[in-house]
């Protein structure tokens, strides 16, 4: 520890934060920048001016950020100016995008590194062992294996993951009609560690499509409702072009522009997009509703080659 000991550092979230009084006698010492490192969290005392302590927070977690702000309210540190650009990149958050080359499906592993609780979005049956191995290697406990919708182009890995990683529970939208341990409706929350995904009903590609909105990380997982510069087809599984258009415009394009969107698939090598990009460049969803319906009615797509196998399997968690 540094000389900040004398100011009774407060333990927050496993790290120390010092609410330092800015008396005249302290000025000289505090003007020399110091770095306190505790549990990989760095606090840098930047400078003191006019009885105001400027503390640079680096690698801070959300609780640390909130605590720093509370110090301002309590007037213990007179003023805390948050200078760190890393505030939004929480060190407790783990994120990994995985890919299936056969169906071009993205699977997403999200976890709270502190509690070790993890969720997997849209796992693929053939990669259940890959995913289980990764989760074990990084030391997480999979609590939920969840789908954005009942897929027609691949068999879900949720059922197999439940047997590979006992304790895992499966999740899907109630309107999908598929079996799962937990059925979600619009507005439901999925909690892992200190994080929460919010289910937003975005029907259109299928009746039961959900978008998982992750406000704490400015992300959303759109499934097949919105793809990068595209969208899911609407010509089977009770698809409706009008509903998909309304879902995107009312539930996804209304998110903040900077939110990163992660789709269930990409066929051109892209990995993610943003709300702002799709509002500007999506060739289908920037059109009027009537134009969009016309486009979707004339795609002339082939019958999905996996659908006759995938749908019956996905109705029962991929166990068939
Ligand atoms: Fe789909």
UniProtKB/TrEMBL annotation:
Subcellular location(s) of the protein: Mitochondrion
Enzyme class, broadest EC rank: oxidoreductase
One annotated GO molecular function: metal ion binding
Record's GO cellular component terms: mitochondrion
Gene3D superfamilies per UniProt: Ribonuclease Z/Hydroxyacylglutathione hydrolase-like (3.60.15.10)
Predominant subcellular localization, coarse grouping: mitochondrion
Pfam family, one: Lactamase_B
Protein name: Persulfide dioxygenase ETHE1, mitochondrial
Native organism taxonomy: Eukaryota, Metazoa, Ecdysozoa, Arthropoda, Hexapoda
């Amino acid at each position: 520890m540094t000389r900040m000991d004398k100011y009774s550092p407060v333990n927050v979230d496993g790290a120390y934060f010092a609410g330092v009084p800015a008396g005249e006698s302290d000025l000289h010492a505090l003007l020399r920048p110091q770095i306190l490192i505790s549990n990989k969290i760095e606090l840098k005392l930047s400078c003191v001016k006019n009885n105001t302590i400027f503390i640079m927070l680096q690698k801070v977690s959300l609780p640390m950020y909130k605590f720093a702000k509370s110090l301002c309210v309590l007037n213990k540190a007179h003023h805390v100016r948050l200078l760190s650009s890393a505030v939004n990149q929480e060190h407790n958050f783990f994120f990994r995008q995985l890919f299936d080359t056969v169906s071009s499906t993205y699977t997403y592993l999200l976890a709270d590194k502190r509690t070790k609780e993890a969720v997997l979005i849209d796992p693929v049956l053939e990669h259940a062992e890959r995913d289980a191995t990764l989760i074990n290697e990084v030391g997480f406990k999979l609590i939920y294996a969840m789908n954005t919708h009942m897929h027609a182009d691949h068999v879900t890995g949720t059922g197999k993951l439940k047997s590979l990683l006992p304790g895992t529970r499966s999740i899907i939208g109630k309107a999908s009609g598929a079996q799962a341990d937990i059925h979600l409706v619009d507005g439901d929350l999925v909690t892992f560690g200190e994080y929460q995904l919010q289910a937003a009903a975005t029907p259109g590609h299928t009746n039961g499509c959900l978008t998982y909105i992750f406000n704490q990380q400015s992300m959303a997982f759109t499934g097949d409702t919105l793809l990068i510069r595209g969208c899911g087809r609407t010509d089977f599984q009770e698809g409706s072009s009008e509903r998909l258009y309304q879902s995107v415009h009312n539930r996804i394009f209304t998110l903040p522009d900077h939110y990163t969107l992660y789709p269930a698939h990409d066929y051109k090598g892209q990995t993610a997009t943003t709300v702002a990009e799709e509002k500007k460049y999506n060739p289908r969803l920037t059109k009027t509703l009537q134009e969009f319906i016309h486009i979707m009615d004339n795609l002339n797509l082939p019958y999905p080659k996996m659908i006759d196998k995938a749908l019956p399997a996905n109705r029962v968690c991929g166990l068939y």
